[in-house]
Amino acid sequence: MLDLLADEDLLEAERELCRRGLSRFIRRAWSVLEPGQRYTHGWHMDAIADHLEAVTRGEITRLLINIPPGTMKSMSVSVFWPAWEWGPKGKPSVRFIGASHEEGLATRDNMKARRLITSEWYQRLWPTPLTGDQNQKTYFENTSTGWRQSCPVGSMTGRRGDRVVWDDPHSVEDAHSPKNLESANRVFRETLPTRLNNPDSSAIIIVMQRLHERDVSGQIVAGDLGYEHLCLPMEYEGPRKATSIGFTDPRTTPGELLFPARFPREVVERDKKIMGDYAVAGQLQQRPAPAKGGVIKTDQFKVVDAIPAGVENWRRGWDLGATLGGDYTAGAKIGALADGRYIIADVARDQLETHDRDQLIKNAADRDGRGAVTQDIPQDPGQAGKGQVSSFAKLLAGHALHFSPETGDKVTRATPFASQVNAGNVLLLRGAWNQAFIDECKTFPGGAYDDQVDAAGRAFNGLLSPSVGIFT
After folding, report:
1. How far apart are CA 247 and CA 231, in angstroms?
2. What value, to the nearest 5°, has the Cα angle with vertex 230 and ends 226 and 235?
3. Any domain includes 290
4. By CB distance 3.0 to 4.6 Å, which of 118, 205, 426, 466 could disulfide with 421?
5. How many domains does the chain contain in total?
6. C-alpha 45: how far from its chain's center?
């Protein structure tokens, strides 16, 4: 009898330990799922757990977690946390949807959660019977009406959950496809909010690495959409605003590592060499472009207060948009200096319908002066391009014009310009347009927009290979 009482006391102590915190539960449950693997703890696990506990308490209903791969993000959010809510926190009726860009990844986590919940260790501490007719790889249900479902991002329809976790909305490959990016963002905007049981209290958690300026994280951060943002880069880059529960990154030294017990300095440096600047910036540092720029090293721009003497040639390259609120129309004016350097004196840019776009181009050309600056305009292929040339020739009568179709991809067209920037040979005339231009160059080609870079590349390539303009 004493042995039985002692055993029950031990079980109750275990229950209480796990009830007091998700991080403690993870340490105890780890060996159930990974019996042959040693658990390595990092302070980031406590940070993730603290924010998920705030969701459990109802203090956070929208949470974005940006963290590098290999840091137990999926296990923490999609496996251990649902089991912790059902068992130690006494919430077996919670309904959980777990989604990912790939069905297999979502199913993997669903199976791990089921394996943990049905384990002898878990059932002994928190008896949670599953219903026999709803116990599958992608969906299982308990006798308290709680359930857990896995699904790919594109099939997030049907059931509604109290917790909807979107773990990695994009694959690395999808992030380079505008079509796939927009597809995931459309699900985020139009489908995700409709999958909640209670719009005012049910929670959405998105956990991912950054891959592109226009990825789901980018939409959240740029739109100020009410998400709590826990951002944990591999290498510390400075303080960030505290989250609503008072968390701040405990690191203080630039470059200090996130999880040195698993990713020591030599491993991080080795991987950085293989991954390249953009992958390091996104997947490790949780921003869509290197701090000093990737293809275009923006720290090499020199901002000046006046145009140096000796500009030998001026050209304004254009990139054309044609919809209000869509792609930008941009025109970059670049001059070639006698000493071999270049200066960007102006960038005109706006999101406009065709008529207003054409007026923007005319106004910029008039400011540039008749014959003083060649207006370099991309030409559509075929018959449409001939009509376009005729239309612009009438609109810009008296100006030097050049038309040519775009050839090659955007990076190839921008490479000559980028090479001169990276060599420190490109000046910027100080102006209100500077910051937007620098920001776009920094994220190119992974940014939300590339119109200014396209325009600058066209102007620069025109200066390198000048052709006789059309004078009207």
Report:
1. 11
2. 145
3. no
4. 426
5. 2
6. 22
Kindly compute the dihedral angle of the four CA atoms of residues 183, 284, 241, 252, in this order, to the nearest 10 degrees. Answer: 180
State how beta strands 426-429 and 203-208 pair.
unpaired
CATH number at residue 265: 3.40.50.300
Both ends of the chain: CA-CA distance in Å?
A: 105
Q: Write the pLDDT tens digit of every residue in 154-182.
A: 666 667 999 999 998 888 877 777 788 88
Which two structure tokens, joined as six digits, stand for 19?
Answer: 């009830």
* CATH number for the domain that contains residue 424: 3.30.420.240
Whether 87 is covered by a domain: the verdict is yes
Q: Distance (Å, rounded) from C-alpha 176 to C-alpha 279?
A: 12
Last residue of a domain, one of 225, 260, 284: 284
- Whole-angstrom distance, CA of residue 162 vs CA of residue 97: 8
pTM confidence score: 0.72
For residues 351 and 327, the answer to whether their CB atoms sit within 8 Å is yes
Q: Are residues 407 and 447 in the same domain?
A: yes
CA distances from 335 to 98, 369, 419, 429 (A): 54, 14, 16, 11
Q: Which domain holds residue 382?
A: 298-471
Contacts of 221 (CB under 8 A, 6+ apart): 64, 229
Q: Where are the alpha helices (DSSP H) in 77-177?
A: 81-86, 103-117, 120-125
For residue range 53-95, what is the model confidence (pLDDT) as tens digits?
A: 999 999 999 999 999 999 999 999 999 999 999 999 999 999 9
Sorted by sequence, the CB contacts under 8 Å of residue 419 that are 6+ apart come out as: none
Q: In terms of domains, do 279 and 304 share one?
A: no
Asked if 421 and 296 count as a contact pair (C-beta separation under 8 A), the reply is yes
pLDDT digit string, tens, across residues 7-33: 888 889 999 999 999 999 999 999 999
Task: Report the 10 Å Cβ neighbour count for 469.
Answer: 18
Same domain, 280 and 338: no
Last residue of a domain, one of 284, 318, 334: 284
List C-alpha distances in Å: 457 to 23, 413, 453.
51, 6, 6
